[in-house]
Amino acid sequence: MFYDLNVPYTANHAELQRTLAFLAELGYNTVALSVSFSGKLPADLTCPIPSSLPFPVPHSLQILTRCTLTLNDPSQNHRLNSLATAYDLLAIRPTSEKTLQQTCLSLPPIDLISLDCTIRYPFYFRQKTLLAAIERGIRFEICYAQGILGTGEARRNLISNATQLVRATRGRGLVIGSEAQRALACRGPWDVVNLGVGWGLDKERAVEALQREARAVVVGAEMRRRSYRGVIDVIYGGEKPVVEENVVGKGKNKNTKGLGKLVNGGKRKADNSTDAEEAQRAAEKPLSKNEMKRRAAKARKAAMGEDGDRPNRVVESSTESKQNTKVAVVEHEDQG
User: Which candidate, 112, 83, 114, 113, places its Cα nearest to that of 225?
Assistant: First the structure.
């Protein structure tokens, strides 16, 4: 499965529909629609992306929601938890070295650090800071669309910043997204892999940036939303399914057998099964010790004969055999 976790959401639904359809044709399976905020956050943090888009979406495409917050001031992070609950993914775009260091080391858990690679940063990416963020489960995102369709300076900055990120992270924890506002800026998964190789990534790492690392971002975000502190998630608590009974109207139904009588305004009695069902339930019910003893005594009685007939026959036969033995002894003495 291939992931593109940065597709800007626009009000131009026709262009957005073409972009999503083209991404599905290229082989992507999961796409995140992104909404960007910069500066002071609005009072209403409800996600503007509708749960069901007003146009048909390819069936093979899974749609996620994402919020990208441009962090200019370190004091803007007081409502990150509200943003994290309103969207599927939360990404931070720092603009200075101080905000980047704060995002990597001390911010609440986020999903992505998305750097604008088309501008020239006045500082170097420090390896220790970036690796600390990766150890916390945060991934770094590189977006290629603005560098492809932008100016020559944007392309140079994209290659320079991407090469620095690969060097500082040692090729780990990187995710490649498009940030394509139209279908023309999208590229196929293997074209993106070739871009990653040109930035200094190994081919395996470039493939992982579109598959394994991106999937880890989605799964980690879901675990943070659903589970307890991102560690324990109750999938099934053993709840019994609720069986809804079809309540018949007031009175009795002559054509229906075994439905029971209706009392108290249409409520059905508990005993509403047929005799065959009751016999089947009784057969499946485990026997008690007293019942087992009673059945064993009944079986022994049946084996020995009903009403004591067999013991009487045994006694009679034994008496007759004794008399025959005495007659045989007397005859033997007379012959002697």
Answer: 83
> pLDDT tens for residues 190-206?
999 999 999 999 999 99
Tell me the torsion sign for CA atoms 292, 294, 300, 306.
Answer: negative
| Mean pLDDT calculated for residue range 15-22 | 94
The mean pLDDT of 206-214, rounded to a whole number, is: 94
Write the CB contacts of 197 (distance below 8 Å, at least 6 apart in sequence).
203, 206
Q: In whole angstroms, what is the distance from residue 326 CA to residue 218 CA?
A: 102
Nearest Cα residue to 68 out of 224, 179, 182: 179
Tokens of 335: 């012959």
Q: Note the pLDDT tens digit of each residue in 68-83.
A: 999 888 776 667 888 8
3-state secondary structure of 228: strand
- What CA–CA distance (Å, rounded) separates 307 from 284? 32
Q: Residue holding tokens 């992931």? A: 3
Q: Is 278 left (phi over 0), alpha (psi -120 to 50) or beta?
A: alpha
Q: Tell me the three state secondary structure of residue 301.
A: helix
Q: Determine the pLDDT at residue 78.
A: 65
d(CA 168, CA 239): 49
Q: Residue 205, CB half-sphere, CA atoms under 13 Å: how many?
A: 16
